[in-house]
User: Fold this.
Amino acid sequence: MLLSAAMDTPNQLDEALLAEHRPMLFRYALLQLKDNELADDAVQETLLAAWQSSANFAGKAGLRTWLIGILKHKIADQWRRSAREVVTADFDQIDSDADEADEDAFFTGNGHWNGGPTTWNDPEAALKQQEFWVIYETCQNNLPPKMAKVFMLRELVGLEAEEVCRETGLSDANYWVTMHRARLRLRECLAMRWFNTEKKENYHA
Amino acid sequence: MRNCREITALVSQGLDKKLALRERFAVWLHVSMCSSCRNFQKQTRFIHKISDRYTDYLKHKLEKNSHHSN
Assistant:
């Protein structure tokens, strides 16, 4: 009793636990806002709001989902304040049938590769080159919107599969299919534009 | 026997959750014989590993841009 009376910080969430999620929240905010300072502000406001209202939070399992929920509001606030024209990635958007169908181009009718992946030479070296990341960005932007969103939440923000499903409303089965397609496409794009091309100079622009 | 489409689906799932033992075995058996799927596995693992670095690149790029505009 004495102990709990002495604690003026919320009892379910301590600052350290919240701070652990800061890098993930920052990545999320940065990918949405494309501005370091605005992203940082949104994350700080999120952590403050979470800290103040942690009594409303029940259960550690959904902590990240809860934090992202707050962050989304803060990001929307930032957009309103900065009065920028915003291109929001609409989570409810459905990719066209054409986007979904072209996975078939990767495989023949009986499920074998239609010209399969060949070896990449020294992929680690690419990471040090600015130009590689430009290509990576292009390839990622070439994914259909919903697929890009799912890929971003999983690979760039670093959420777990079930968190991505909660966030996007995707079913389990749809999630696996979407990520499979996203990886097939991104791998193919990186191969064509970087790893399996002799003349990388052509793609610097 | 599972085909390449099914094996690559399992490889992709394996990056997001722990596969069942017999699924892991099926993948292992297949990639030991199929170089395309072996490359797919290697390369998607690589993409998985590097993706969070993209945000570092983005942060850096945005910093530079705002510097130029000042």
Notes: Chain A touches chain B through 42 residues (CB under 8 Å).
